[in-house]
Amino acid sequence: MTPRPAVPSRRTLLRALAAVPASAVLLGEAPGLLGSALATAPPNGSATRYTIVPFLNSDDGTVSVYQSDDATDFRLLRSSAYTPPANRIRDASVIRHSDSYYYVTYTTHTWQDPSTTIGFARSSDRVNWTFLYDYTVPIAGLSRAWAPEWFVDSDGSVHIIVSCSTANDEWIFTPYLLRATNSALTAWSSPVALSGIGANHIDTFIVRIGSTYHAFPKNETTKYIEYATASHLAGPYTIRRTGDWAGWGSYREGPALMQLDNGGWRMFFDGYGDGNYYYSDSHDTFATWTAPAALPAISGTARHFTVVKETVTGGPSLARSITRSFRSANYTTRHWQQQSSLLNLPVVGSSSTTAEKQAATFTVVAGLADGSGYSFRDAAGAYLRHWDFRARFDADNGTSTFAKDATFFLRAGTSSGSVRFESYNYPGHYLRHYAYQLRVERSDGTDLFRQDSSFVPVTAWA
């Protein structure tokens, strides 16, 4: 973990002053927001791409751009990609708009200073950014406007949620809704306070599923992220869950929610109390969540981000309904081979026996749980699946659990022609070799893990 610097942050101030901001974060999975991304794995030759534009612990005067194909292992695309012409850039929220440009909106000042504006910049390639303008939020007596966040509704309308305080109580924030009144995103409706969430909540994040808006505000008294719903974007919202209902713990904020390829939802949030940035997944529409895990590589470095999910060209490809063998990308004489129902990585070559070659040959088929994924069948008809995180072959028992255990999504490998296989029901976990055994393990963000989880599909040995 990268140590947190002594540079003051908004979170540090809030703890020190026992302040009560209510920064509203709003992002939805909609066409204008996520481009062509869907809650399914991309087709052959395409890839899922997640982009974040965080400011860093060490510097709130610039933002860097990171990307990932699995929403777990984020890699730096451009350091210090955008620096505004004046002031600061914090809490940057990013979308891809219907004009194909990427836009960020952000907090323009550090916590010490009055901040009545929010900033805007745009990019055609996520790497080179152009400052657009600073917008003064028209609220009488405004003291601070923090954490503006995009929300694109299902009808394509573009909104921003911004948390604002007034001079008579500069640390009590209320979330306000702005709506773009032109497609250039340069004109905005009058601010309207969100109803039902109110003051004393910070970083409210909202997604829409069907006709329901699901909100995740942080309660600034208890320091827990709560859960609320409404039938209209502006509310009124009803808070449904409080306390440690999701198992994320206290002193958590900055929630950002997006949908994974397997249809589940991933929540990112800032564990500002312990210096980590976490993620947690739900596969039952927010009723239960996985134990929070620190994001590899960027935990302790990145701060307050949202996510753009897209489907892009140039991804990996693997044909189905054919037989293939799979060679390790970093141990090039070693191949997948079934040994007593377990999948191992022994040396396989021209001098191997017919039985050894047959045990290293597999039929690639559509995923049992999701046809956009992949499953692998041996000569006897058993399927590759994970059990207690060990890769093994078993007969299909017809259960949904087995189908999920036996389904993998295709991701790009570390070398030309190589691919990686992400577990369908354990997102961010990959087939990788360790001590020449194949296991399903959580990515730790290292180059070694990526190499150990990369395999080259080759002509079948048998």
Task: Outline the structure in words.
The chain has 462 residues and is mostly beta strands. 6% of the residues lie in helices and 44% in strands. The protein is built from five helices and 34 strands. It has helices spanning 10-17, 31-34, 354-359, 400-405, 447-452, and strands at residues 46-52, 55-56, 59-68, 75-82, 90-96, 102-107, 117-123, 129-136, 142-152, 158-166, 169-179, 192-193, 201-209, 212-219, 227-230, 238-241, 253-259, 265-271, 276-282, 293-294, 302-303, 308-313, 322-328, 337-339, 342-344, 362-366, 374-377, 383-387, 390-394, 408-412, 419-423, 429-434, 437-442, 455-459. Strands 1, 2, 3, 4, 21 and 22 form a six-stranded antiparallel sheet that branches. A four-stranded antiparallel sheet has the order 5-6-7-8. Strands 9-10-11-12 form a four-stranded antiparallel sheet. A hairpin with a 5-residue loop joins strand 5 (90-96) and strand 6. The two termini are 46 Å apart.
The gyration radius over C-alpha positions equals 24 Å
Distance between the termini: 46 Å
Q: Could you list the spans in which at least 5 consecutive residues all have pLDDT below 50? A: 1-38
**Helicity range:** under 10%
Q: Tally the beta strands.
A: 34
User: What sort of overall outline do the alpha carbons produce when their principal axes are compared?
Assistant: elongated
- Sheet having the most strands: 6 strands, antiparallel
Secondary-structure-based class equals mainly beta
**Number of helices, counting only DSSP H or I runs of 4 residues or more:** 5
Question: Strand-residue fraction?
Answer: 35-45%
Overall mean pLDDT stands at 90
